[in-house]
Amino acid sequence: MSNVELVSIIVFFLAFYALVTNRNIIRTIIFSSLMEVSVITFWLSIGFRERLNPPILYTMADYEHIYTADPVTQALMLTAVVIGIAVTAIKTIMFITLYRKYKTTDWDLARIRKTEG
Amino acid sequence: MLTLYVVSPILLAVFMYLFTNDKAAKIIAILAQLALIIASFNLFLQARTYTVSETVGNYYSVTGIRLNVDGLSSILILLTTLIFLTITIYNFAEKKSKLFWLLMFIWEGSLIGIFMTGDFFNRFVLMEVSTIISTILIMYNRKHRSLYDGLYYLIINVISVQFYLLGVGYLYRLTGTLDIYEATYRIPHIDPSLLVLPYALIMTFAALKCALIPMTTWVPKALATAGAPPTVLAVMSTVQMTSGIYLFIRMHYVFGDFANNAIFAFVGASTSIVGIFMAISQKNIRHMLSYLAVVQFGLIIFGLNTGDEYSRIGTTYHMINNAIAMAALFLGTGIIIEKYQTKDLDKIQGVLKSAPITSYVLIFAFLSIFATPFLNGSVSKQLIIRDMDILGTIIMYIISLGSMVIFFKFSSIFFGKSKIEESESETLKMEIQEFSIIPLGLLCILGGIFSREAIGIFFNAYKSINIAENIQHGVIFVISIVIAFFINKLIKKDTPILKKLQTYDMGIRGIILSVGLFFAFILLIVGF
After folding, report:
1. Which residues, at least 6 apart from B459, have a Cβ–Cβ distance to it below 8 Å?
2. CB contacts, 8 Å: B215 with chain A
3. In this prediction, does ipTM exceed 0.85?
4. Which of B125, B132, B147 sits opposite A101 (nearest CB)?
5. Is B146 an 8 Å CB contact of chain A?
6. Which residue has the higher pLDDT, A62 or B390?
7. Residue of A39, A77, A101, A116 to mutate for B, most B C-beta atoms under 10 A
8. What percent of chain A has pLDDT over 90?
9. 3-class DSSP state for residue A70?
10. Which of B89, B328, B347, B528 could form a disulfide with B365, with the two C-beta atoms 3.0–4.6 Å apart?
């Protein structure tokens, strides 16, 4: 396992720890995005080994003698980044509406105010 | 051709958004759904004999995204189209905004895509799409919507899907492919100790989607939230949650011998039993039904992981029966809630008089759920039980008994004197809604009477229940219904334990922590 893979798994579980320990809704949104970022880093590090070139081929002749990193992981993570942005945007919008209604950034307070009506 | 099954609902969605005439658009939507049912039935007939397969973009098979339709997925696709036809008819007289229909049919497309795709990453993308759409739809009703519930549902799903993505990344590193079927061939050649982490990561996500214990509390957030239309809940409780079970089945298949069945049998059974207690304590109709869904999904997971071939067939048949019954329950209670303007079980009375057709459909759906003889639920449960050991059989009957107690508690709404007055303007809408759920009630009966034929068509296997089993089942059924009646009488309404269970809410940090604990649990048990 390469260093980058190890670091991204550590960051993943650190973000998870932060999610469990924080009551603030904004922090929950930030740390869930951090989790996404760590997964993306993990995927990118799978396709990469030292001394490999970026997966760009200028001519078909390059195909023979240039060793490139795995392009599949990079292409897929582009999709994951886009999905991550969409999800973060929706979470933030929902948080803003929730804040206007309950006037709080705290999960527990929001729950109490919801049950009180 | 297979891509058309995913694309055509999305095209229909765009058409519904752009078309100006509301009534005409709905008629076209119903016709399109009918066409889709016929097409998926045709697909189902093909998939009975061989696996229909297609690679998107005509790539060499493993390089591109492969769509695969085998027996199981074709049945679920047929079920999806059936449910969506029902809800299109249900909403015929109701004025819904164009955005509603746009999202609804894109949701259908993505759900069919989940059942078809043979690619790990593609499944992740479609699951994210369906999560986002369902989050928006459960908050559709602006006046009563609960943002807390919506945000809770979205965040827990988004966090757990990261577990899946990390697991898939790890699997890709080990196998070098994202194709599920190719991975199935390569996994037996990998050192088992390396598979522990991806298995635990992926199964944590699958367990959350199936609402297994201790991650159950998101279900009432999604299925009992205030602003959600009944049609959305009908899709949510059936197809959306069944997609979780489907993921579970496929992932267990991918890991082959490495997969651990014993843990999930245990977790499934305990989910059902906890679900029964939670359901009995509720006063809100939708909370009660959402915990009933938990009981059913726990039972399905239990059935999948115990027993042999009969159990598999029985469980798959039960998945269909359960989906039909759950859809009928959520749509039927939707009619009642709108009529009485309340969700409180104690305040609704006399439904048998004010809405007779709805009541009968609801009763048949419930009868099917707790395995009444001659209904489809009993056939599937007897098949599950057939090759189980004595402990499994006892657990199955306890779960049935619990469902009966839930029914007796629910049945208080049917009797008594109705206090509402009929309004003329609403009757046509109600009639159409009632008309749309009748087929679901009929399917419960037909699926029981023609069970031999149904199982023959669905699974290519002629397995019927013999008379001795029927008599045994009937005797146990009568005994347990008497016991359930008395248990229901014994339960007092305001005991402190029930009150505590009724208001029990884990909070977001609790459920995130339980995701982590479940992951650690699987990791420890599989690792050692």
Report:
1. B71, B313, B316, B317
2. none
3. yes
4. B147
5. yes
6. B390
7. A39
8. 47
9. coil
10. B328
User: Pick from A91, A31, A69, A72: which is nearest to B168 by CA?
Assistant: A72
Q: What is the pLDDT of residue B340?
A: 82
Q: What residues make up the domain containing A85? A: 3-116
Distance between CA B478 and CA B464 in Å, rounded?
22
pLDDT of residue B519: 93
By C-alpha distance, which of B382, B358, B245 is closest to B307?
A: B382
What is the tally of structural domains in chain A? 1
B154 touches A: beta carbon within 8 Å: yes
Residue B119 φ then ψ, to 5° = -125, 130
Position B435 scores a pLDDT of 85
Q: Chain B neighbours among A 52-71 (CB < 8 Å)?
A: none
Reported as a single tens digit per residue, the pLDDT across B275-288 is 998 888 888 888 89
Identify which of B128, B507, B509 has the shortest CB distance to residue A87: B128
What lies within 8 Å, CB to CB, of B220 at 6+ separation is B286, B287, B290, B291
Binary contact (A23, B509; C-beta < 8 A): yes
Contact (CB<8Å) B509/A114 = no
First-residue to last-residue Cα distance in chain A: 52
The two tokens of residue A18 are 């932060």
Find out whether A33 and A88 touch, Cβ atoms under 8 Å: yes
Exposure b/e, B214-243, CB count within 10 A at least 16 = b:
bbbbbbbbbbbbbbbbbbbbbbbbbbbbbb
Residue B281, CA distances (Å) to B123, B246, B322, B344, B412 in order: 37, 30, 22, 13, 14
Q: Which residues of A are less than 8 Å from B283 in CB distance?
A: none
What one-character-per-residue DSSP string does B8-22 give? HHHHHHHHHHH---H
Contact B231, B91 (CB under 8 A): yes
Query: Taking a C-beta distance cutoff of 8 angstroms, is the pair B47, B143 a contact?
Result: no
**pLDDT tens digits for range A80-92:** 999 999 999 999 9
| Cα gap A39→A24, rounded to integer Å | 23
Q: Which whole number is the average pLDDT over A18-36?
A: 92
Residue labelled with tokens 């499994």? B392
Amino acid at B74: S
List of long-range contacts for B190-193, beta carbons under 8 Å, 24+ apart: B192/B258
pLDDT at A58 over 80: no
Residue spans of chain B under pLDDT 70: 61, 307, 419-426, 462-465, 493
Contact between chains at B512 and A43 (C-beta distance less than 8 A): no
Nearest Cα residue to B384 out of B375, B373, B395, B374: B395
**Per-residue model confidence (pLDDT) at position B455:** 80
Q: What is the pLDDT of residue A96?
A: 94
* CA A47 distance to own-chain centroid: 18
Higher pLDDT, A49 or B13: B13
A77 touches chain B (CB under 8 A): no
For residue B519, give the nearest of B273, B295, B246, B263 by alpha carbon.
Answer: B263
CA B408/CA B272 separation, integer angstroms: 18
Instruction: Determine the pLDDT at residue B269.
Output: 92
Q: Which pLDDT does position B161 carry in this prediction? A: 93
A6: Cβ contacts below 8 Å, ≥ 6 apart: none
Q: Which CATH number belongs to the domain containing residue A13 in this structure?
A: 1.10.287.3510
Q: What is the mean pLDDT of chain A?
A: 87
